[in-house]
Structure formats: structure tokens, C-alpha cells
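re: that complex we talked abt at group meeting.

here r the seqs, copy pasted straight from the sheet so there may be weird spacing, ignore it
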Amino acid sequence: MKAKIHVTLKQGILDPQGKAIEHALDSLGFKNAANVRVGKYMEVDLNETDRTKAEAQVKQMCEKLLANTVIEEYRYDLQ
Amino acid sequence: MNIGVVVFPGSNCDHDCEYIFKDVLGQSVKMIWHKDTLPAGLDAVVLPGGFSYGDYLRTGAIARFSPVMGAVKTFAREGGLVIGICNGFQILLEAGLLPGVMLRNTSLNFICKDVYVKVENAATRFTNRCESGQVLKIPIAHADGNYYTDPVTLGGIKANAQVIFRYCTAEGKVTPEANPNGSLDNIAGIMNADGNVLGMMPHPERSAETVLGNEDGRLIFLSMLSAFGKTEQQSRLVSV
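got the structure back, here u go
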């Protein structure tokens, strides 16, 4: 099974990178682009066929390492 | 005093810390590879600056799982002195030994320069040789030093006098202009509730010797010695 994981900053947490990109988009002429937020995307192959077990593992991975839940939230797809 | 300096892959201030404690202050120092455990008999542990694991994922996020960190947590829980400088501070945050996280500097730049910090609490084992409100000039060198925590935690650490250093002007005024990285409340260093774990972004080991033109950082290390009943004279005698 493959887990596709997105880690993003929570709402309200300042994202200086996103801001810088937003300004760059603006100077490129994309005047209607707003609220750019930068996140991380990770893929993990799991040697597991049971969906429930895989989901529990991915959740643990996110909580323990992949996201810092003070400032970040995560979501994932299992395929 | 017996000091252990932890060496992670990517640490680059480990030898500076060793030099200050051993050659400048005359203490006994052991370098501890991150895959080892802490030797018995240590009085203090230093988590040095650098770029452990290349700052992959988040600063300090992977170093936190290094085998030695289990021993560091136990050491801290049992009351041992732990100081994390720069990347060491980031590791302490990720390890949960101190509250909060580091965000990217608001300028997005790696900032390497002398800054002024105000000693907010001089009644600690890391600042007892400073005066309350004293302004120290100590260099910073980081890209992720923008301290953040939730309002409840911030209120708690402030009420409990755990905010130890705040970025300020040369005159000691804590202003937004004196904040180099966007840090919440100008926070440059915090301590745990028990008072034995300190994290700070400025590098005192880079400003602890006359020949470097700045000795302000030395006060942090001398305070740690004082906490163990050692004096500057004793340490100087040994180092001569």
C-alpha cells in the first residue's frame, strides 16, 4: 500500500515562504493569486495489505515525526 | 565540572563548546557520539549548534530520535543540567524537553550577526552570573529561529519566569525592530519549569573569550560553573 501524505501549516501560522512566493506570483502578473501556503508532500510504501492497520501506522508516523502538530496539520490518502 | 557535548551528524559547534569548557574554563569534557549513551558522572550536557541531519523535514526533528536522546531525556528528568544552543535548542523543542517550535525567520534569510539579548531572569543556573535586565551581546546564526508557541503555553512560560533571554536594543529595550527573526515576544531563550534545561538561539560559545573581542557569552558558562560551586578563579587557575 502507498501512503500519500500532505503536511501543511495550520491556519493562522505565519508562512514567510508562502508570502515570498505570493509576492513573486504578483510580480509575474498573477494579480489575483492570494494566500499562498507552502507545505510538504511525502510518499511512503507500506508493506501492509490491511487498510485499517496501514491507516493507524500512517497516523502514528504523522503524529510522531512527519508533522509537528503544534504548527502543522496532516492528511493522507492510502492507495 | 564534567560536561558531555553531544555530537550529531551535522553538528558544527561541538568543538567550540568543547574548547570553551575545556581550554578556556578548565573543565572536563567528553564528546558523545549520538549513537552512544551518556557516560555516568556527567554534571551537564550540551546539545551544540549545527545542522543535525541537514535540517531535513524540520530542524531538530530527526536528531530527536537519535539513540543518545533517550539518555538525555532521562538525564534531564533526573535534574541534570542541559543546555541547547541554536540547533540544540531546536532539538530540545522537537524532543518536547522545552515547549514550542521554531518557524523559518520572517525574512527567510539565514541571519548571522551580533544581537543584543536582555537577561529576563538572572536567578537561574544558567544566568546567575548575570544581573537581571543585563544586556548581553551574543551572535546568532540561524534560518529557523522564529520561536512560536500557542497563547496558553506562552502565558505559562511568562508567568513562570521561564523566558530567559529576549532580543533587545543595545540599551535593553525590547522592540519589534530589535527582533531579528520574528520570534514571538522577542524570545531568544527559554528554560523548562524545573529550571535545569535551557534552550537559546544565540551562540555564547562564540563570544566567550577576550581574543574574540566579546566575552558576554562566557557569563552563561560561568553561571553553570557557579551552579556547581565552581568559581571563575578556580576555572582560570586550572586553565592556566
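couple things i noticed - The CA atoms of residues 100 and 150 of chain B lie 8 Å apart. The first helix of chain B runs from residue 14 to 24.
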